[in-house]
Structure formats: structure tokens, C-alpha cells
């Protein structure tokens, strides 16, 4: 029984490159992001991984990353589900703003709180806790069953939606997870026990 779950944060996007808050806005990958996605696919191929099903968000950067990974694996026709439950955290009024401009407008400390606290949302947006409230049920009801029946599943999503998922998988507190950085385009491979707990975790950095 495989019970493999692979999480991949999308490759660098055009807006990551420009230091903008992205959230639910929909820029595509930068040139570097495209290369990161190809590299992720090659790493997974070298590890001998193949997938039975894929999940991603409704945002272009995550879908594009998944497509390039599957291309490297020779699995371009893989059954794929897209759901906004896996979208990046909604940054609300910060979306589309340069991070330095946001600091100038609201102050360094306030912006830091919005970015790095667990349960304080930016104006009009979501906290990490809010993001988790839509990610966790989707994982439990839709993704996890495929893993537990022995499948090999890949999820290509975003820094904060994956952070919420990793928080649950690794048993971390809200304070612990907000300080975790997820690199773009780096696969994280989990192997689960039959009771859904984590047997093994490997970061393909």
C-alpha cells in the first residue's frame, strides 16, 4: 500500500517576482517559476513517483505548475480536480499591492501581523485560520480518502493553503506554522499510516 501524498507550492509567479500581495488574483508563473515546476517534476520522476489523481486550486499559477510536473512525469492526462478550497489565502485589500507600499500605508508592524499571525485577517481578507477552515474539510472529505485506499496523490497549491494542510499533518500549533517557509516548486512527500497519521515526510529541497 503506497498511501503517498505529495504537496507542491507553485513555482515563482510574476507577482512573487514583483513583491506583490497576490491572494486570489491570478498571475501566471515567471520564467523562473516555469523552471522550478519542471525541476519538481524531474525530482519526482527520479524518485520513481507516479500519481493516481491530482488536486489543484482554481488559480493559474498552481494549475500551470501541476501541468509542467505531470509533463515531466509523462502523466499529462491524469485525472485532476480543481477547487477554490485550495486557493491561496485571500489578502483582501492588500491584493495587488507592493509589500513595501503596504508597509508605508499601514506600518511595518501591522503588515507583519497580517502576514505572520495565525488568526488576524487583513482588511477584507482571510487569516491563515480562515484559510484552514476551507482547506481542512476539503482534504479530509475529498483528498485523504484517495491516499488512505493506497493511492498516490499530488496536490499543487499555494504557500498558505499548503501551510494550513501541513499544520494539520505535522500537528503544529498556529504559532509554529506561521514561521514555516515553504519554498516554491519544492515537493514535500508524505507517506501516511492506515489511520491517516504521518509515517514519513521528505522535503525534496
Automatic annotation (TrEMBL):
Gene3D superfamilies: Phosphoglycerate mutase-like. The active site is at residues 10, 88. Substrate binds at residues 9-16, 22-23, 61, 88-91, 99, 115-116, 159-160. It comes from Consotaella salsifontis. Keywords: Gluconeogenesis, Glycolysis, Isomerase. It is an enzyme of class 5 (isomerase). SUPFAM superfamilies: Phosphoglycerate mutase-like. GO terms for molecular function: phosphoglycerate mutase activity. Pathway: Carbohydrate degradation; glycolysis; pyruvate from D-glyceraldehyde 3-phosphate: step 3/5. One of its GO terms (biological process) is glycolytic process. The record marks 158 as: Transition state stabilizer. This is 2,3-bisphosphoglycerate-dependent phosphoglycerate mutase. It catalyses: (2R)-2-phosphoglycerate = (2R)-3-phosphoglycerate. Belongs to the phosphoglycerate mutase family. BPG-dependent PGAM subfamily. Homodimer. Catalyzes the interconversion of 2-phosphoglycerate and 3-phosphoglycerate. Its EC number is 5.4.2.11.
Amino acid at each position: 500500500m503506497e498511501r503517498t501524498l505529495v504537496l507542491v507550492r507553485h513555482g515563482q509567479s510574476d507577482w512573487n517576482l514583483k513583491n506583490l500581495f497576490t491572494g486570489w488574483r491570478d498571475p501566471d508563473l515567471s520564467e523562473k517559476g516555469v523552471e522550478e515546476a519542471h525541476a519538481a517534476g524531474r525530482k519526482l520522476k527520479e524518485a520513481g513517483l507516479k500519481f493516481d489523481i491530482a488536486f489543484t486550486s482554481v488559480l493559474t499559477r498552481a494549475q500551470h505548475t501541476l501541468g509542467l510536473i505531470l509533463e515531466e512525469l509523462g502523466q499529462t492526462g491524469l485525472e485532476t480536480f480543481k477547487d477554490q478550497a485550495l486557493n491561496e489565502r485571500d489578502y483582501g485589500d492588500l491584493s495587488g499591492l507592493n509589500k513595501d507600499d503596504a508597509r508605508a500605508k499601514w506600518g511595518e508592524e501591522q503588515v507583519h501581523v497580517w502576514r505572520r499571525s495565525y488568526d488576524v485577517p487583513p482588511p477584507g481578507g482571510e487569516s491563515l485560520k480562515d484559510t484552514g477552515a476551507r482547506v481542512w474539510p476539503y482534504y479530509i472529505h475529498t483528498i485523504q480518502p484517495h491516499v488512505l485506499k493506497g493511492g498516490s496523490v499530488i496536490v499543487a497549491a499555494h504557500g498558505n493553503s499548503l501551510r494550513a494542510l501541513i499544520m494539520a499533518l505535522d500537528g503544529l500549533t498556529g504559532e509554529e506554522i506561521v514561521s514555516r517557509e515553504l519554498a516554491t516548486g519544492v515537493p514535500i512527500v508524505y507517506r501516511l499510516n492506515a489511520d491517516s497519521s504521518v509515517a514519513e515526510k521528505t522535503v525534496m529541497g
